[in-house]
Amino acid sequence: MRQSFHRIMTIVRKEWIHIIRDPRTLSLVIIMPVMMLFLLGYAVANDVKDIPLAVADLSHTDASRTLIDKLTGSEFFLYTHAAQSEDEILKMLDEGTVKAGLFIPENYGREIYTGGSTTIQFYIDGTNPTIAQTAQLAAETISQSLSQEILIQRLERSGTGMQISLPVDARLRYLYNPDMKRMNFMIPGLVAIILQIQALLLTAFAIVREREQGTLEQLIVTPIKSWELMLGKILPFVVVAFINVVMTVAVGAVWFGVKVVGSYALLAGLSLIFLLGSLGLGVFISNISKTQMQAMYMASFIMIPAFILAGLLFPRENMPGLAYYAGYLLPVTYFLEIVRGIILKGADFVILWKWIWPMAVFSIVVFFASVLMFHKRL
User: Fold this and answer.
1) pTM for this entry
2) Which fold has domain 51-175?
């Protein structure tokens, strides 16, 4: 028994020495749970509030201002944009500038003051069912509460002999996802995440594996140039990533009914730009990792924030300030908006431009910087 214990402790000591000699992996193992705790604790929230709201008030009366105050006075809506027409509201919803829009007709105040009834139009971006359902419940509740207050005031002025009807009829219209299916929200997001994971992990692991097996040095001594080596190694991963995108889009359309409303060519072209950045990150990880275990942990530092902070599962509008702005450091945040815009809204290049240019800058800079860094390590 004593000899067995001695042998076990010898192995334990040996393994502990290996851990101590690899502080990079040790630090990743220790830091990872702490990072996940912070991300899950601060970014994953269930309460939706401060939904960006555009308002087109054609009435410009005390009654219309009261309605706006009722909506913006709650914690659900944040009055961010003033529109001049119904078409302007729809344009903001197309661009993703706001998530909800309120159109108040010109006769609103007159009908309220004269004892009549009027209709207001409330638009909701249905691409994210969580936000849309919250906006629906809040809008209906607030409009009904306002109608009750107006009715009470009328009864106090005129007695009980008048005909009672709701003075404010709030009509809700869901855009882009009228059936409120959560799958319509998830499928486009999965396209972006699959592309990110495929490019990131395959590139990082392939180069690290070459280094561990000693075959990378054999390639170095050949006449092949460094950029030719890099291009030859990443092109297969481009093909694999695009096959996964095509399969995901096809399955989403055929099986789940989430069809691409916009341009397939635009989706493919912007996917390629995003892929450059993901491949660049994979090359960067391969340059600072000596083992596949290190590469896996380093990749997790990118993938976990991508799942949580980019808006795949949880609305970014509901995240605290630090987590919200940290999402802008991830290119997948922009690509998620692009993919959902093309698939669900049929958005074109002009509408998506505000998401395209930061993603393109990041992807191009990271890709070429990573290739140059790899060149220096050869």
Assistant:
1) 0.67
2) abc type-2 transporter like fold (3.40.1710)
